[in-house]
Design brief:
Blueprint (H helix, E strand, L loop, with lengths): L11 E3 L5 H13 L7 H14 L8 E2 L2 E3 L7 E11 L9 E9 L4 H15 L2 H9 L3 H11 L1
Parallel strand pairs: 1-4, 2-5, 3-5
Antiparallel strand pairs: 4-5
Helix pairs in contact: 1-2, 4-5
C-alpha cells in the first residue's frame, strides 16, 4: 500500500504546536481536511487512548500516532513535520520531528498493518527522513514520499 495515495497537500503540514497533546490535535485537524473523519471527538479519544497504552514515539525522530476507530470508514492519514522537535516520549528519549498520523476503521487489521509496515520501511532510510525534514512545502514532502515509494 502506497503512503502517497493516502496523503494529499491538504493533509500534510509543518507543525506549529510544541507539545504532545497539541501535535496530536494539529495532526487530527489535518486528517479532518481529508473529509474522511466523521467524528473528531471519537478520533481524538481513540488516539489518546492508544497513546495511554504506550507511546507511539519511535526512535530516530519518528512518531506514528495511530488508532483504530469508528470515526473513519477507511484508512486516513496526515503527515506533520516539526522543525524544533517534540517530546513524544520516544523509545530513545529524543524528540520526534516526523509524525505519520493514522486512523483506521476498527475492522481494518490487514491494511492497517500494511501501512504501518510501509512507514517503517520508508523511515528506516536516513536520507528519506532528512529529505522529508528539509522539504519546504506539503508538495515537497509529498514528492519525497513519491520518490521513495
Amino acid at each position: 500500500m502506497r503512503i502517497s495515495g493516502l496523503l494529499s497537500e491538504k493533509t500534510i503540514s509543518r507543525l506549529t504546536r510544541t507539545d504532545k497533546q497539541g501535535v496530536i490535535e494539529e495532526l487530527l485537524d489535518l486528517a479532518m481536511n481529508s473529509g474522511q473523519v466523521h467524528d473528531r471527538e471519537e478520533a481524538l479519544r481513540a488516539i489518546l487512548a492508544r497513546e495511554a497504552l504506550m507511546s507511539t514515539g519511535l526512535e530516530k525522530g519518528i512518531a506514528v500516532p495511530h488508532a483504530k476507530t469508528r470515526a473513519v470508514s477507511e484508512i486516513t492519514m496526515a503527515l506533520g513535520v516539526s522543525e524544533g522537535g517534540v517530546d513524544f516520549h520516544s523509545a530513545d528519549g529524543k524528540p520526534s520531528y516526523i509524525f505519520f498520523f493514522l486512523l483506521a476503521p476498527e475492522n481494518a487489521a490487514g491494511p492497517n498493518v500494511q501501512v504501518l509496515a510501509q512507514i517503517a520501511r520508508l523511515t528506516h532510510d536516513r536520507s528519506f527522513c532528512e529529505d522529508l525534514r528539509k522539504a519546504e512545502s506539503p508538495a515537497g514532502m509529498l514528492a519525497v514520499i513519491n520518490d521513495a515509494e
